[in-house]
Amino acid sequence: MIARTDSNRVLKLKDNLLSSKYELCVERMKFFTEIYKEYPDDPEVIKRAKAVAHTLKNMTIFIRDDELLVGNETSKNLGEKINLDLQRYNNSLEKRVTFKKLRRRKLQPFYIEEAEIDELLEIIPFWKGKSLIGSRINRRLREEKLITGEGPIASLAPNISIQIGTTEGHLCAGYEKLLKLGYKGIIEEAELFQSRLNKTDEEYQDKFNFYDSVKIYYGAAIEFAQRFSELSHNMIKTQNDDVRKSELKIIADMMKKFTEEPPDTFYEAVEFIWFSQNIANIIYQRSV
């Protein structure tokens, strides 16, 4: 069934995506690798939070023409990430021919620039023995005899690996609380809970690290929103259409607001949820 709408804006955005080629984006993997190399001895929860913050601070951001809900997951118009920190390590990824095959295959081809292949070939060996699923979770499950091996999981979404799903499940944040408190409110709550920790508790350090990571994550979300506010302002300067200028001004003010306050209007709430879910997709994998 073909969805129909009277909105030319929605149709243009839809056509733009459907006419785009699937591409691989290396930015997330690059930024995660930089942090994991720089802070190898940090607790995992802190190291991961720093990696997310580094990614949100440095990744390419853009706002498409006619877009009213902003926030991109990759540097590509229609892109997929390589998340070696989460998935299984595969020796075939160390071979240039693997990525060339991805471009040529008939089912779900993914395009990647030669320079990006070079970058990946430098990054990939670092993650051998460090991936979450292949090197830690599944190894632990085999050691505890909870599984005897690994089997393929079919996925309908366009994936780099056709026979292995790239989502961890139905991921949804606690948006009722997030809509009420906003990013800054979550940080303040984490600081409060952290201050109440019992230092004699044997789990004190783990709990302290957890609240530290929460503050890092949401501080990064605030900075990410600020980046989109600044981008919107810069786009206004080169925009000739007065209607679009007005739209970009609303977006800029709204994203600036998110750095200090939770949303108030329906439009703000929809953008806030989309923007937050987009960050979750950057951290993990594309979610349902």
Summarize, please.
With 288 residues, this protein is mostly helical.
Number of helices: 10
Percent of residues in β-strands = under 5%
Radius of gyration: 21 Å
Instruction: Please summarize the sheet with the most strands.
Output: 2 strands, parallel
Please state the overall shape, judged from the principal axes of the Cα atoms.
globular
Organism: marine sediment metagenome
Protein name: PFL domain-containing protein
GO cellular component, one term: cytosol
GO molecular function, one term: catalytic activity
Structure description:
This is PFL domain-containing protein. InterPro entries: GRE, PFL_dom. The structure is a single chain. The protein has 288 residues and is an all-alpha fold. It has one domain (8-283). Helix content is 55%, strand content 2%. It has 10 helices and 2 strands. The protein has helices at 8-18, 27-38, 44-58, 96-104, 114-123, 132-143, 175-195, 204-237, 242-258, 266-283; strands at residues 23-25, 79-81. The protein has a two-stranded parallel sheet with strand order 1-2. Helix 2 (27-38) crosses helix 3 (44-58) and helix 8 (204-237) runs antiparallel to helix 9 (242-258). The protein starts with 7 loop residues before the first helix and ends in a 5-residue tail after the last helix. Mean pLDDT is 86; it is low at 153-158 and 160-167.
